[in-house]
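Hi C.,

You asked whether I'd gotten around to modeling the 263-residue construct. I have! Everything is below, sequence then structure, no commentary in between.
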Amino acid sequence: MDLKLKGKRALVTGSSRGLGYATALALAREGCHLAVNGRDQARVSSAAAKISAETGAHAIGLAGDLADPHVPAGLVNQAARLLGGLDILVTNAGGPPSGAFEAFDEAAWQKAIDLTLMSHVRLIIAALPFLCQSKAASVLTVTSYSVKQPIPNLVLSNSIRLATVGLTKSLALELGSAGIRFNSILPGWTATERVTELMTFRAKQNGTTVEYEIDKQSKDSPLGRMGTPEEFANAAVFLVSPASSYITGVMLTVDGGMYKGTM
């Protein structure tokens, strides 16, 4: 299938590793011009260079911490300037820390809100003028299947990501007339550095090993394993592509069947 992505201009945040990197790489393979982002300039530059070398695509690396209120607008403007516009925005950010409710004070909640909700809001606000000029504008927010089925010891993520889903659906309804599509992917447990960090936290709490915790969590999927970043990226690339031009307001669970509900 031709996804009609060749020549499209995309900004993928949180893309120096994990789900974001896999998505950026997959978009590059489809012929997109890319801006990748992460907090560390050396890591981001390396990711962009690796994508360019592997695919031949134009990829630039832009450093910036999305939890900083001043970063998202500058990041979007820089990406649009260097790419000559913007057709696709993938808003992805690292999740807040693990822990029980009593472990977090108000400052921790505010920091998590800035990273897990407001980064999406600020990126989208800054991108709208460019997306309105595109004939194939699409925004994908990356959340978690925890918005449907809360995950133990992730109260910050469980709570705040729900707001991002509400934002995504609201904007799909509000801005569809402007030709901009909004969707979200709710990934389940996927083999990334972030998940290794969470499994390390569990292992310390439970007195087990990281390998044990990964195996235990994998059994929660009917497929008996965690997903791969590439499997997530395949779904993400389709959703942002013109090939899915009549899909908007969708919250797609990519979790190997770990969510047990029917809605």
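If it helps when you're writing up: The chain has a mean pLDDT of 96.

Thanks,
B.
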